[in-house]
Predict the structure.
Amino acid sequence: MVAMKDKLSTDSYKGVRDFYPEEQYIQDYIFFVWEHTLESFGYEKYNASVLEPTELYRAKSGEEIVNEQTYQFIDRGDREVTLRPEMTPTVARLVAKRRRDLTLPVRWYSIPNLFRYERPQRGRLREHWQLNADMFGSTSIEADVEMIELAATILKNFGLNDTQYEIRINDLQALQQTLSEAGLNDIEAHQYRKLLDKKDKMSDFDEQAERLLGRPFTLTLAPSEAIETVIAKLHQRRIANVRFVPSLVRGFDYYTGLVFEVFSTDPTNNRSLFGGGRYDNLTSLFDDTPMPAVGFGMGDVTTRDVLETYNLLPPYKPTTAVSLCVLNDAFYDLAAELAQELRLEGLNVSLDVSGKKIGEQITKANKRGVPFIIAIGDDEAASDTFVVKHMATGVEKKCKRRKIAAFVKKATTR
Protein backbone atom coordinates (compact mmCIF):
# COMPACT_ATOMS: atom_id res chain seq x y z
CA MET A 1 0.00 0.00 0.00
CA VAL A 2 1.33 3.41 -1.00
CA ALA A 3 1.24 5.94 1.83
CA MET A 4 -0.66 9.16 1.19
CA LYS A 5 1.69 12.10 0.67
CA ASP A 6 -0.70 14.63 2.13
CA LYS A 7 -3.28 14.29 4.87
CA LEU A 8 -6.86 15.24 4.12
CA SER A 9 -8.06 18.66 5.24
CA THR A 10 -10.35 18.88 8.26
CA ASP A 11 -12.14 21.85 6.71
CA SER A 12 -15.73 21.40 5.54
CA TYR A 13 -16.85 22.14 1.99
CA LYS A 14 -16.98 25.91 1.35
CA GLY A 15 -20.31 27.47 2.27
CA VAL A 16 -21.59 24.70 4.54
CA ARG A 17 -21.32 24.21 8.29
CA ASP A 18 -20.29 21.56 10.79
CA PHE A 19 -22.49 21.37 13.87
CA TYR A 20 -20.54 20.56 17.02
CA PRO A 21 -22.74 19.96 20.10
CA GLU A 22 -22.80 23.67 21.03
CA GLU A 23 -23.90 24.67 17.52
CA GLN A 24 -26.36 21.79 17.26
CA TYR A 25 -27.91 22.94 20.55
CA ILE A 26 -28.71 26.32 18.97
CA GLN A 27 -29.98 24.65 15.81
CA ASP A 28 -32.27 22.37 17.81
CA TYR A 29 -33.58 25.37 19.74
CA ILE A 30 -34.42 27.21 16.51
CA PHE A 31 -36.18 24.14 15.14
CA PHE A 32 -38.10 23.68 18.41
CA VAL A 33 -39.49 27.23 18.35
CA TRP A 34 -40.43 26.83 14.69
CA GLU A 35 -42.20 23.52 15.24
CA HIS A 36 -43.93 24.59 18.46
CA THR A 37 -45.26 27.79 16.86
CA LEU A 38 -46.43 26.16 13.62
CA GLU A 39 -48.20 23.36 15.42
CA SER A 40 -49.89 25.85 17.77
CA PHE A 41 -51.55 27.27 14.62
CA GLY A 42 -52.66 23.80 13.48
CA TYR A 43 -49.95 23.12 10.87
CA GLU A 44 -48.78 19.56 10.14
CA LYS A 45 -45.23 18.50 9.31
CA TYR A 46 -44.20 16.87 6.02
CA ASN A 47 -40.93 16.16 4.21
CA ALA A 48 -39.55 15.03 0.85
CA SER A 49 -36.30 14.04 -0.85
CA VAL A 50 -33.52 16.57 -1.37
CA LEU A 51 -33.35 15.42 -5.02
CA GLU A 52 -35.80 16.76 -7.61
CA PRO A 53 -35.95 16.77 -11.43
CA THR A 54 -34.29 19.97 -12.70
CA GLU A 55 -37.35 20.75 -14.84
CA LEU A 56 -39.33 21.43 -11.66
CA TYR A 57 -37.21 24.53 -10.96
CA ARG A 58 -36.70 25.52 -14.57
CA ALA A 59 -40.46 25.85 -14.91
CA LYS A 60 -41.11 28.29 -12.09
CA SER A 61 -38.21 29.27 -9.82
CA GLY A 62 -36.56 31.60 -12.33
CA GLU A 63 -33.70 31.25 -14.78
CA GLU A 64 -31.15 32.94 -12.51
CA ILE A 65 -31.67 30.37 -9.77
CA VAL A 66 -31.59 27.40 -12.16
CA ASN A 67 -28.67 28.51 -14.32
CA GLU A 68 -26.47 30.16 -11.70
CA GLN A 69 -27.35 28.94 -8.22
CA THR A 70 -28.25 25.25 -8.32
CA TYR A 71 -26.24 22.08 -7.84
CA GLN A 72 -27.12 19.94 -10.86
CA PHE A 73 -25.93 16.63 -12.25
CA ILE A 74 -26.89 13.95 -14.75
CA ASP A 75 -27.69 10.65 -13.05
CA ARG A 76 -26.91 7.18 -14.40
CA GLY A 77 -30.27 7.12 -16.15
CA ASP A 78 -29.39 10.30 -18.10
CA ARG A 79 -31.85 12.39 -16.07
CA GLU A 80 -31.19 15.99 -15.00
CA VAL A 81 -31.28 16.14 -11.19
CA THR A 82 -30.98 19.12 -8.84
CA LEU A 83 -30.34 19.44 -5.12
CA ARG A 84 -33.37 21.47 -4.07
CA PRO A 85 -32.67 25.21 -3.81
CA GLU A 86 -36.12 25.84 -2.27
CA MET A 87 -39.10 23.83 -1.01
CA THR A 88 -42.14 25.56 -2.52
CA PRO A 89 -42.14 23.71 -5.86
CA THR A 90 -41.81 20.43 -3.97
CA VAL A 91 -44.77 21.06 -1.69
CA ALA A 92 -46.83 22.14 -4.71
CA ARG A 93 -45.97 18.80 -6.33
CA LEU A 94 -47.00 16.89 -3.18
CA VAL A 95 -50.32 18.72 -2.94
CA ALA A 96 -51.07 18.29 -6.65
CA LYS A 97 -50.42 14.55 -6.41
CA ARG A 98 -52.99 14.01 -3.66
CA ARG A 99 -55.30 16.97 -4.14
CA ARG A 100 -58.40 14.75 -4.42
CA ASP A 101 -57.70 13.18 -1.03
CA LEU A 102 -56.90 16.36 0.88
CA THR A 103 -59.27 18.26 3.15
CA LEU A 104 -58.85 21.92 2.34
CA PRO A 105 -57.42 24.21 3.41
CA VAL A 106 -54.19 22.29 3.97
CA ARG A 107 -51.81 23.73 6.56
CA TRP A 108 -48.36 22.15 6.21
CA TYR A 109 -44.81 22.94 7.29
CA SER A 110 -41.36 21.46 6.80
CA ILE A 111 -37.74 22.22 7.75
CA PRO A 112 -35.71 21.06 4.73
CA ASN A 113 -32.04 21.64 4.03
CA LEU A 114 -31.57 23.63 0.81
CA PHE A 115 -28.61 24.12 -1.52
CA ARG A 116 -27.59 27.09 -3.66
CA TYR A 117 -24.27 27.63 -5.36
CA GLU A 118 -23.60 31.26 -4.52
CA ARG A 119 -20.93 33.35 -2.85
CA PRO A 120 -21.00 32.67 0.92
CA GLN A 121 -21.54 35.83 2.99
CA ARG A 122 -23.22 36.91 6.20
CA GLY A 123 -26.73 35.47 6.27
CA ARG A 124 -26.22 33.46 3.07
CA LEU A 125 -24.50 30.08 2.70
CA ARG A 126 -24.49 27.31 0.12
CA GLU A 127 -26.45 24.99 2.40
CA HIS A 128 -28.99 26.04 4.98
CA TRP A 129 -32.14 24.82 6.68
CA GLN A 130 -35.39 26.66 6.20
CA LEU A 131 -38.79 26.62 7.81
CA ASN A 132 -41.45 26.44 5.09
CA ALA A 133 -45.03 27.21 6.11
CA ASP A 134 -47.81 26.93 3.52
CA MET A 135 -51.59 27.00 3.33
CA PHE A 136 -53.26 25.51 0.25
CA GLY A 137 -56.89 25.79 -0.80
CA SER A 138 -58.02 29.23 0.40
CA THR A 139 -58.40 32.46 -1.54
CA SER A 140 -59.52 34.32 1.57
CA ILE A 141 -57.49 37.32 2.62
CA GLU A 142 -57.68 35.80 6.11
CA ALA A 143 -55.15 33.20 4.90
CA ASP A 144 -52.70 35.98 3.95
CA VAL A 145 -53.25 37.66 7.31
CA GLU A 146 -52.71 34.39 9.18
CA MET A 147 -49.43 33.79 7.37
CA ILE A 148 -48.06 37.17 8.43
CA GLU A 149 -49.42 36.72 11.95
CA LEU A 150 -47.69 33.34 12.09
CA ALA A 151 -44.38 34.89 11.04
CA ALA A 152 -44.72 37.62 13.67
CA THR A 153 -45.60 35.05 16.35
CA ILE A 154 -42.44 33.07 15.59
CA LEU A 155 -40.31 36.15 16.16
CA LYS A 156 -42.23 36.95 19.35
CA ASN A 157 -41.62 33.40 20.58
CA PHE A 158 -37.91 33.90 19.97
CA GLY A 159 -38.08 36.95 22.23
CA LEU A 160 -38.08 39.80 19.68
CA ASN A 161 -40.31 42.83 20.22
CA ASP A 162 -41.98 44.78 17.43
CA THR A 163 -39.38 47.56 17.48
CA GLN A 164 -36.67 45.09 16.48
CA TYR A 165 -38.11 44.12 13.10
CA GLU A 166 -40.41 45.48 10.41
CA ILE A 167 -42.85 43.67 8.10
CA ARG A 168 -42.95 45.13 4.58
CA ILE A 169 -45.80 44.16 2.24
CA ASN A 170 -46.87 44.73 -1.34
CA ASP A 171 -49.55 43.56 -3.77
CA LEU A 172 -48.07 42.10 -6.98
CA GLN A 173 -51.48 41.89 -8.63
CA ALA A 174 -51.95 45.64 -8.15
CA LEU A 175 -48.38 46.22 -9.30
CA GLN A 176 -48.95 44.24 -12.51
CA GLN A 177 -52.14 46.18 -13.21
CA THR A 178 -50.30 49.48 -12.71
CA LEU A 179 -47.51 48.43 -15.09
CA SER A 180 -50.03 47.36 -17.72
CA GLU A 181 -51.95 50.63 -17.44
CA ALA A 182 -48.62 52.46 -17.87
CA GLY A 183 -48.16 50.75 -21.24
CA LEU A 184 -45.62 48.04 -20.34
CA ASN A 185 -46.17 44.75 -22.17
CA ASP A 186 -45.77 41.42 -20.39
CA ILE A 187 -42.07 41.08 -21.23
CA GLU A 188 -41.29 44.63 -20.16
CA ALA A 189 -43.31 44.24 -16.96
CA HIS A 190 -41.45 41.01 -16.10
CA GLN A 191 -38.06 42.62 -16.72
CA TYR A 192 -39.04 45.71 -14.74
CA ARG A 193 -40.09 43.57 -11.76
CA LYS A 194 -36.74 41.76 -11.88
CA LEU A 195 -34.98 45.12 -11.84
CA LEU A 196 -37.25 46.36 -9.05
CA ASP A 197 -36.25 43.34 -6.94
CA LYS A 198 -32.65 44.64 -6.96
CA LYS A 199 -33.52 48.31 -6.38
CA ASP A 200 -32.15 48.53 -2.83
CA LYS A 201 -28.73 47.35 -4.05
CA MET A 202 -28.57 49.84 -6.94
CA SER A 203 -27.53 53.48 -7.00
CA ASP A 204 -28.71 54.06 -10.59
CA PHE A 205 -32.11 52.37 -10.63
CA ASP A 206 -33.90 55.11 -12.60
CA GLU A 207 -31.20 55.13 -15.30
CA GLN A 208 -31.29 51.34 -15.57
CA ALA A 209 -35.09 51.33 -15.79
CA GLU A 210 -35.00 53.95 -18.56
CA ARG A 211 -32.37 51.94 -20.43
CA LEU A 212 -34.45 48.78 -20.07
CA LEU A 213 -37.74 50.30 -21.22
CA GLY A 214 -36.32 52.81 -23.71
CA ARG A 215 -38.16 55.67 -22.02
CA PRO A 216 -38.38 57.38 -18.62
CA PHE A 217 -40.69 55.60 -16.18
CA THR A 218 -41.51 56.34 -12.55
CA LEU A 219 -43.54 53.79 -10.58
CA THR A 220 -46.52 55.29 -8.74
CA LEU A 221 -48.37 52.69 -6.68
CA ALA A 222 -50.82 53.40 -3.88
CA PRO A 223 -51.85 50.72 -1.33
CA SER A 224 -54.49 48.45 -2.82
CA GLU A 225 -57.71 47.59 -1.01
CA ALA A 226 -56.17 44.21 -0.16
CA ILE A 227 -53.10 45.87 1.39
CA GLU A 228 -55.23 48.24 3.46
CA THR A 229 -57.40 45.36 4.66
CA VAL A 230 -54.40 43.23 5.65
CA ILE A 231 -52.76 46.09 7.55
CA ALA A 232 -56.02 46.86 9.40
CA LYS A 233 -56.50 43.22 10.36
CA LEU A 234 -52.91 42.91 11.55
CA HIS A 235 -53.36 46.00 13.71
CA GLN A 236 -56.40 44.33 15.28
CA ARG A 237 -54.11 41.42 16.16
CA ARG A 238 -51.61 43.81 17.74
CA ILE A 239 -49.12 43.63 14.89
CA ALA A 240 -48.43 47.28 14.11
CA ASN A 241 -44.89 47.15 12.69
CA VAL A 242 -46.11 46.59 9.12
CA ARG A 243 -45.48 48.95 6.18
CA PHE A 244 -46.54 49.12 2.53
CA VAL A 245 -43.49 49.14 0.21
CA PRO A 246 -44.42 49.41 -3.52
CA SER A 247 -40.96 48.25 -4.69
CA LEU A 248 -41.14 44.92 -2.84
CA VAL A 249 -41.53 42.09 -5.36
CA ARG A 250 -39.59 39.06 -4.00
CA GLY A 251 -37.27 37.09 -6.26
CA PHE A 252 -39.35 34.16 -7.43
CA ASP A 253 -41.52 34.14 -10.54
CA TYR A 254 -44.40 32.22 -9.00
CA TYR A 255 -45.80 34.91 -6.65
CA THR A 256 -49.19 36.20 -7.81
CA GLY A 257 -50.64 38.46 -5.12
CA LEU A 258 -49.71 39.79 -1.71
CA VAL A 259 -46.02 39.40 -0.78
CA PHE A 260 -44.22 40.28 2.44
CA GLU A 261 -40.69 40.45 3.77
CA VAL A 262 -39.40 40.84 7.33
CA PHE A 263 -36.42 43.11 8.02
CA SER A 264 -34.31 43.55 11.14
CA THR A 265 -34.22 47.17 12.32
CA ASP A 266 -30.83 46.89 14.04
CA PRO A 267 -28.30 49.06 12.14
CA THR A 268 -25.63 46.34 12.44
CA ASN A 269 -27.92 43.70 10.91
CA ASN A 270 -30.36 45.82 8.91
CA ARG A 271 -31.26 43.23 6.30
CA SER A 272 -34.02 40.95 5.11
CA LEU A 273 -34.64 38.03 7.48
CA PHE A 274 -37.26 36.11 5.51
CA GLY A 275 -40.42 36.50 3.47
CA GLY A 276 -43.18 34.93 1.44
CA GLY A 277 -46.49 35.58 -0.20
CA ARG A 278 -49.36 34.25 -2.30
CA TYR A 279 -48.74 31.88 -5.21
CA ASP A 280 -52.05 30.70 -6.68
CA ASN A 281 -50.85 29.05 -9.88
CA LEU A 282 -47.95 26.82 -8.92
CA THR A 283 -49.87 23.54 -8.81
CA SER A 284 -50.93 24.15 -12.43
CA LEU A 285 -47.46 22.86 -13.36
CA PHE A 286 -48.83 19.40 -12.61
CA ASP A 287 -52.51 19.58 -13.67
CA ASP A 288 -55.01 21.93 -15.28
CA THR A 289 -56.60 23.18 -12.06
CA PRO A 290 -54.55 25.70 -10.06
CA MET A 291 -54.93 25.70 -6.29
CA PRO A 292 -54.65 28.93 -4.26
CA ALA A 293 -51.75 28.99 -1.84
CA VAL A 294 -49.85 31.31 0.47
CA GLY A 295 -46.68 30.67 2.44
CA PHE A 296 -43.24 31.79 3.57
CA GLY A 297 -39.73 30.48 4.15
CA MET A 298 -37.54 31.39 7.15
CA GLY A 299 -33.87 30.37 7.06
CA ASP A 300 -31.83 29.17 10.02
CA VAL A 301 -28.81 31.34 9.14
CA THR A 302 -30.61 34.70 9.23
CA THR A 303 -32.62 33.51 12.23
CA ARG A 304 -29.48 32.77 14.19
CA ASP A 305 -27.94 36.08 13.10
CA VAL A 306 -30.88 38.13 14.36
CA LEU A 307 -31.03 36.21 17.65
CA GLU A 308 -27.31 36.85 18.11
CA THR A 309 -27.78 40.53 17.24
CA TYR A 310 -30.34 40.96 20.01
CA ASN A 311 -28.58 38.65 22.52
CA LEU A 312 -31.41 36.13 22.37
CA LEU A 313 -29.40 32.95 21.84
CA PRO A 314 -29.89 30.49 24.73
CA PRO A 315 -26.76 29.44 26.67
CA TYR A 316 -25.54 25.93 25.89
CA LYS A 317 -26.65 23.21 28.27
CA PRO A 318 -25.54 19.60 27.85
CA THR A 319 -28.30 17.04 27.60
CA THR A 320 -26.60 14.82 30.20
CA ALA A 321 -28.03 15.33 33.67
CA VAL A 322 -25.82 12.99 35.72
CA SER A 323 -22.28 11.70 35.29
CA LEU A 324 -21.30 8.54 37.19
CA CYS A 325 -17.63 8.40 38.16
CA VAL A 326 -16.12 5.16 39.46
CA LEU A 327 -13.24 4.66 41.90
CA ASN A 328 -11.87 1.75 39.88
CA ASP A 329 -12.86 -1.02 37.46
CA ALA A 330 -14.52 -3.05 40.20
CA PHE A 331 -17.47 -0.63 40.37
CA TYR A 332 -18.41 -0.46 36.67
CA ASP A 333 -21.15 -3.07 36.98
CA LEU A 334 -22.78 -1.29 39.92
CA ALA A 335 -22.52 2.04 38.09
CA ALA A 336 -24.03 0.57 34.93
CA GLU A 337 -26.91 -0.88 36.95
CA LEU A 338 -27.55 2.50 38.61
CA ALA A 339 -27.37 4.25 35.24
CA GLN A 340 -30.05 1.93 33.82
CA GLU A 341 -32.35 2.64 36.77
CA LEU A 342 -31.94 6.42 36.46
CA ARG A 343 -32.55 6.30 32.70
CA LEU A 344 -35.79 4.43 33.32
CA GLU A 345 -36.72 7.35 35.61
CA GLY A 346 -36.24 9.73 32.68
CA LEU A 347 -32.73 11.04 33.37
CA ASN A 348 -29.89 11.23 30.84
CA VAL A 349 -26.90 9.53 32.46
CA SER A 350 -23.32 9.07 31.28
CA LEU A 351 -20.88 6.56 32.77
CA ASP A 352 -17.23 7.54 32.69
CA VAL A 353 -15.24 4.67 31.12
CA SER A 354 -11.94 6.52 30.77
CA GLY A 355 -10.17 4.64 33.56
CA LYS A 356 -8.78 7.94 34.86
CA LYS A 357 -8.50 8.82 38.53
CA ILE A 358 -11.81 9.79 40.04
CA GLY A 359 -10.74 13.42 40.52
CA GLU A 360 -9.97 13.68 36.82
CA GLN A 361 -13.34 12.11 35.96
CA ILE A 362 -15.14 14.72 38.03
CA THR A 363 -13.11 17.54 36.47
CA LYS A 364 -13.98 16.33 32.94
CA ALA A 365 -17.68 16.06 33.75
CA ASN A 366 -17.65 19.56 35.20
CA LYS A 367 -15.84 20.90 32.12
CA ARG A 368 -18.57 19.41 29.92
CA GLY A 369 -21.17 21.21 32.03
CA VAL A 370 -22.86 18.12 33.47
CA PRO A 371 -24.88 19.48 36.41
CA PHE A 372 -24.80 16.44 38.75
CA ILE A 373 -21.95 14.08 39.67
CA ILE A 374 -22.12 10.79 41.60
CA ALA A 375 -18.88 9.11 42.66
CA ILE A 376 -19.08 5.36 43.24
CA GLY A 377 -16.68 3.42 45.44
CA ASP A 378 -16.56 1.06 48.46
CA ASP A 379 -18.86 3.11 50.73
CA GLU A 380 -21.56 3.47 48.08
CA ALA A 381 -21.44 -0.21 47.17
CA ALA A 382 -21.72 -1.24 50.84
CA SER A 383 -24.48 1.18 51.92
CA ASP A 384 -26.49 1.52 48.68
CA THR A 385 -26.43 5.25 49.47
CA PHE A 386 -24.89 7.76 47.07
CA VAL A 387 -23.73 11.34 47.36
CA VAL A 388 -25.23 13.47 44.58
CA LYS A 389 -23.28 16.68 44.02
CA HIS A 390 -24.81 19.68 42.26
CA MET A 391 -21.75 21.17 40.57
CA ALA A 392 -23.13 24.70 40.10
CA THR A 393 -23.80 25.21 43.83
CA GLY A 394 -21.49 22.66 45.42
CA VAL A 395 -24.45 21.29 47.41
CA GLU A 396 -24.19 17.57 48.19
CA LYS A 397 -27.08 15.29 49.09
CA LYS A 398 -26.95 11.73 50.39
CA CYS A 399 -29.65 9.68 48.68
CA LYS A 400 -30.76 6.09 48.65
CA ARG A 401 -30.58 4.92 45.06
CA ARG A 402 -34.38 4.85 44.64
CA LYS A 403 -34.55 8.57 45.60
CA ILE A 404 -31.77 9.91 43.40
CA ALA A 405 -33.96 10.62 40.37
CA ALA A 406 -36.52 12.57 42.40
CA PHE A 407 -33.80 14.70 43.97
CA VAL A 408 -32.14 15.50 40.65
CA LYS A 409 -35.46 16.41 39.00
CA LYS A 410 -36.47 18.66 41.88
CA ALA A 411 -33.10 20.39 41.97
CA THR A 412 -33.18 20.89 38.19
CA THR A 413 -36.58 22.65 38.20
CA ARG A 414 -35.65 25.18 40.90
